[in-house]
């Protein structure tokens, strides 16, 4: 072998050995550090949830059927005509007596929410022969139904475009 070829192979083997002599633990730590610093902006600026109206529904008596969350922006049809009048309607399957509705991309404004536990999934709040509801229902802003459903004004709340967390307990 000629002298220049010998020098190249000695140099190559020295470089090769210096890379393989780095302990595995050090390589793992270096890789983890690179991954953490690469994702640091995403970790620092992450939000817990998307801007919108997030509704947690409490007091669901069983896991049958679905929960209908109807978002209204005007008194017209509130709360009974949710299939025609709500600006946003969400049907969520009940799991383990829990349900959550998430409305995103909602413009600024004043809104009211009506929630029903549609146990038989017929798209309406069932009542007995006296007109008393037999399925769970609830409204935003703690509005109560006494002799009839509350008004839009009683259930309304302002929305500023941020992240709004609401809790509605069913009756």
From TrEMBL:
<dbReference type="Pfam" id="PF09912">
    <property type="entry name" value="DUF2141"/>
</dbReference>
<protein>
    <submittedName>
        <fullName>DUF2141 domain-containing protein</fullName>
    </submittedName>
</protein>
<dbReference type="InterPro" id="IPR018673">
    <property type="entry name" value="DUF2141"/>
</dbReference>
């Amino acid at each position: 072998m000629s002298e220049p070829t010998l020098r190249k192979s000695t140099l190559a083997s020295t470089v090769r050995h210096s890379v393989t002599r780095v302990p595995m633990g050090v390589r793992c730590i270096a890789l983890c550090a690179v991954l953490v610093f690469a994702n640091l902006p995403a970790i620092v600026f992450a939000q817990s949830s998307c801007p919108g109206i997030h509704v947690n529904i409490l007091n669901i008596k069983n896991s049958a059927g679905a929960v209908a969350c109807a978002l209204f922006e005007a008194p017209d049809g509130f709360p009974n005509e949710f299939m025609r009048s709500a600006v946003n309607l969400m049907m969520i399957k009940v799991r383990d007596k829990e349900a959550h509705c998430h409305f995103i991309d909602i413009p600024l404004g004043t809104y009211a929410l009506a929630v029903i536990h549609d146990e038989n999934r017929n798209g309406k709040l069932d009542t007995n022969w006296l007109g008393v509801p037999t399925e769970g229902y609830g409204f935003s802003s703690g509005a109560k139904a006494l002799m009839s459903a509350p008004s839009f004004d009683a259930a309304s709340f302002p929305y500023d475009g941020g992240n709004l967390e609401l809790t509605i307990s069913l009756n």
